[in-house]
Structures are given as C-alpha cells and as structure tokens.
Amino acid sequence: MTAAANAPTPSEYIVHHLGHLSSQHQTKIIDFSIINVDTVFWSVFCGVVGCLLMYIAARKANAGVPGRFQSFIEMIVEMVEDQSKAMVHGDRSFIAPLALTVFVWVFLMNSLDFLPVDLVSGILRLFGMEEMHHRIVPTADLNGTLGIALGVLTLMLYYSVKIKGLGGFIHELFAAPFGIKLAPFNLLLNIIEFVAKTVSLGMRLFGNMYAGELLFLLIALLGSTATAFGFVGHVVAGSIWAIFHILIVLLQAFIFMMLTLVYIGQAHEAH
C-alpha cells in the first residue's frame, strides 16, 4: 500500500524522465550559464566510442577477404564518400571525414534511445538517488542538437570565406540574390537564411528523437497498468515501435549528415 501510494502519477513519471542532470536549476527560458551534464557526458561518450570503432576498423583492415565488421565499415565509408562527392565540388580531404564523423556520432547518440527508459532511474534508485534527473539521449536535448548545428554553421562560414575570399563573401552577403542596389534587403535575407538553416538542422533532429523518447515513456506507462491488456499492449506496442525506431535512428543520422554536406556544398558555390 505504501509503495502504491508513493508511486508517481503518469504526468510526474514523464516529467521526471524528461528532466536533465543540470549544473543548476533553470528558471528562465534561455540561460546559457546552465550546462546539462548528462547531455555533455553521453555526447562525449558516443564520440569516444565512435572513434574507437573507426580505430579498430582501421587497425584490422587488410587487402584480403574482409570480415563482416570491416565490410560494414567500408560500406559506410563508401556511402559517405559517394554522397560527399555528389554534394561538394572541391577538396574533400576534410569534408568527407567530417561527414563520416557526423553520421557515426549522431547515429550512436540516437541509438542510446534503445536502452530501457527506466534503466538509469533504476540504477539511481539502487544508490538512493531516485529523485535525481538523468537523460541518456543527447539528441533528444535541444541544446545538444543546436550545439552540433552551430558547429555546422561555423564550417559554412569558414568555407564561404575560404572559397570566395573575405571580400567575395561580404560582397555576396550584400549583392545576392537581388543585386547590390538592394543591399540592406539582401543582407537581411542572407542572415535569415543562415539562421534558418542552423535552427532547422538542430530542431529537425531534436523533434524526431524527443517524440520517439516520449512515445517510449507512454508505452512504458501502458505496461504499468495492472491488466492483461496493458501488459500485452506494452509488449506489442513496444516491440513494434522499437523496430520502427531503428529506421528513425538511422534515417535521422543520414539526414543530418546529408544536410551538413548540402550546406557546406552551398558554401563552395558562388551566386
């Protein structure tokens, strides 16, 4: 009776699982002084795992008959190289590895969504820290996805200046697309374009992963109902959504990688 009385309501359960382990409590909509420690930790963790996998693949690579792991990595590398060749016309010695890094990193971060939703809370409960918030999926945090998108924006600006020169880039900001006579309007339009690309890149990944995480929580709540329908629905719905979510995880990583290549490719082109 005591455990049942202290059990959280569905709303409390969802709010608790969607909370972050932060450096301090957030009281404003935007506060850049707050750091979501869980997002930073799992992002770095996935980055290290991705680098380790690529390192192992490179060490084990041979000219003979490749094994399954080597074939899988070679397939990914070839796919990314083909896409970068189609999108970017110029030196790709940095851009192709960048695209590969983005794809593998985002895929690994998205894949953390396959872990049971109550795994971390169960571990924290063992240590008496059940009130502590912790979220595993970095890409379900808008701060994480917009952080990566800002990195892509930095590369867009860098290649715009590198390819066109500082003078050419500034001239394009004021002259494209309607001519130098409409310089103020062109500048405003180009600034909006850069902002829109950055925000949409981060929001697209965040929205899909956040919705997937929320749906997993709703399915978990379905299993908590003490009925045969709830249990069966939890197993069936959870299995179907997990299989479908595999496609979402892979597709979102691919889309993020492709948009990165598209934006950097556009920075190589002059209007």
End-to-end CA span: 70 Å
Given the C-alpha coordinates, what overall shape results?
globular
* Average of per-residue pLDDT values: 87
> What is the percentage of strand-forming residues?
under 5%
Number of strands: 0
Largest sheet: none
Pattern of helices and strands: HHHHHHHHH
Low-confidence stretches: 1-5
Radius of gyration: 22 Å
Provide a count of the helices: 9
In terms of structural class, how would the helical and strand content be classed? Answer: mainly alpha
The helix fraction, in percent, is over 70%
What do these coordinates show?
By secondary structure, this protein is mainly alpha-helical. It has a domain at 34-141 and 204-267. Helices cover 73% and strands 0% of the residues. The chain is built from nine helices and no strands. It is globular, with a radius of gyration of 22 Å. The chain starts with a helix and ends with a helix. 23% of the residues are buried. The model is unreliable at 1-5 (pLDDT under 50).
